[in-house]
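Re: [help] complex structure
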Amino acid sequence: MFSRKKEMKLLQESEEKYRKMIEKAYDAIFTVDASTAKILEANPKAEEITGYAVEELVGMNVWDVHPPEEEGAVKELFDRVSETGVGECNELHFLKKDGSQVVVDISASVVAYDDKKVIQRICRDVTSRRELEKKNEFQRRYYEQIFDLVPIGLGVKKDVDTDPKVDFENKMLRDMFYGDLEDTFHIRWHQSPALMAVPTKSYLEETGAYAEERSYPDGRIFLFTLNYFMNEEGSWCEVAIAQDITSRKRLQEKLIKANEELEDKVEERTKELRQKQAQLIQAEKMAALGNLVAGVAHEINTPLGAMISNNDVTIRSMEKLHGIIDKPEVASMIHEHEEIQKLLECIDEMSVVTRTAGRRLSKIVNSLRRFARLDEAELDTVNVHEGLDSTLTLVHHELKNRVEVHKEYGDIPKVTCYPNQLNQVYMNILVNASQAIEDKGDVFIRTYQRDGSIVIEFRDSGRGIPKENLKRIFDPGFTTKGTGVGTGLGLSIVYQIIEDHKGQIEVESEVGKGSTFRIILPIARER
Amino acid sequence: MDNGKDQPTIIIVDDEEMVLQSLNSILGLETSYNVVSHTSPREALQYIESNDVDLVISDYLMPEMDGISFLAKVRELKPQIPRIILTGYADKENAIKAINEVGLFQYIEKPWDNDDLLIIIRNGLEKQKLLKDLQEKINEINGAYSDLQKIQNEILKTFV
Ligand SMILES: Nc1ncnc2c1ncn2[C@@H]1O[C@H](COP(=O)(O)OP(=O)(O)OP(=O)(O)O)[C@@H](O)[C@H]1O
Ligand SMILES: [Mg+2]
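Output below.
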């Protein structure tokens, strides 16, 4: 008995507690008849959000506190809860007694109550929260619109150290990566090919940002600047700034190329200038030499003329003398004086030697003259072999006893050329050959015809030219001879002259074996 | 050369004594021409003006007067004398030009060959002699013609 009473009391107490809880609840709570959908009870909060008094609410249908257009949704929720026992629906509205509306989230469940089945609906007024959310949304959109106008890609990733998620991308970034690219490229900025490892804290403290250029398979190049910060939720965020620098890069490449080309051109021009300068120097030298030689030739020819003539007179006199002493009466007398006979013989021999010497001298003077002649700086059709011979006469002193010259002159036509210039060519090549021969050696000079050209070939048994030098020997100023020995102009002048003659020059060389210089001149020269 | 009365007279001019001596020797040895040598072109001109001369040889480069001008003056004085120039190789081109301009007979290059020299001189003299003979013939004919004319005149006179 007692226990029954006590039990009743306990029940009463818990009922009281429950009622108080409901009365003080923050949410509106309705108790609804599960079969009729009529409101049985409502707490004070329900009065507050609906604007109706409890007395008015009791007996209303649940959908009566909602605007008519939500009746269907409310009924649907009611049916679902009756069937399954629970259900919820957000973003519904209460139509208040004064006609205004509030936004409510509703959750409902079936409970047993005084042996009756009732539905308890808990409705939360979320109007102010929704408004805040909307405001936040507006604000976000406002900034997004601003960022969309920025002409660089801007993106934010959250949780980069755990599970990276894109939080924000502006229009530029979206256009850059999703624009006209095919999906198959799968290019998204957060799938960057060179996805960098999450920076360490110390790295960030030191540098704060990270920049790199990334090339994409479609050929575009982006400059990425990545900044990191920890947001208020304690998540590492990455702010990526991406600039499409493809055209800038291309421009830069073009600029570099143009620059290089310019440098090449300058170098080429410099080389040309140096060549021209070398030629001028040589031309000046030749002019000076020509004048000198002309003067010297004249100075030498006068005494030489006298000497040769006098020697000739001696020979003629001796002939006459022999005519006299061969007469029998004189001959017998001479016979007795052996001395006279000997002296006469001596004079005869010496005058023959003097005649040879005189001829040689006049040949040298002629060669010199021909080699350096100024008045022959005109086109002429000449025999190459004569030019070679007169040049050989001049370098004779350089070669004799040391270098043997083998001439293999072929049957070649005359060439139209600047003869003294070609002589300079032979001279420079022959002097080089002689200088390349250390002790004793040979030089082969061969001339022949080849494919409508004539070839003048100089082969020496000198030290040869190393491969790395071969390309440079025609550069003005290139010399391997010490200062004072070589100016390095010789072959550059050769090259220029041969070019002026529309010819070509070939070189072959092997270190230790020797070198071959081949001059190829066209036979028909158009003027 | 005492018996050189009917031998031709040759004038040689060169500022170099040594050349004059050489030419003298060869001509002395091989010919019996009268050879008169001068180191000064001016003196040579004076000599030519007042003497009978058959041929002139001159050097080209001389300090006093160059060979071409000298020979041009010789031509003014006595155009019929053959003129030969002796050149060093250096001035060959000029000498050849001068041959045409000043009307030279020949040029000889230094160093010269004595045989060539002798032939050139002999040819020059021959030409000179032919010209001289021709002139004499012309003079003779002219003389004969004027004699004829005289006779004609006299005949005319006698008749008139
Ligand atoms: N026949 C050769 N054998 C070996 N090396 C050669 C030969 N000809 C030329 N050379 C190389 O080519 C370089 C250039 O030659 P070049 O004639 O232009 O100048 P150089 O001889 O040094 O000086 P210069 O000609 O003014 O006296 C030489 O220094 C040499 O090293
Ligand atoms: Mg050289």
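The domain at 9-133 of chain B is CATH 3.40.50.2300 (Rossmann fold).
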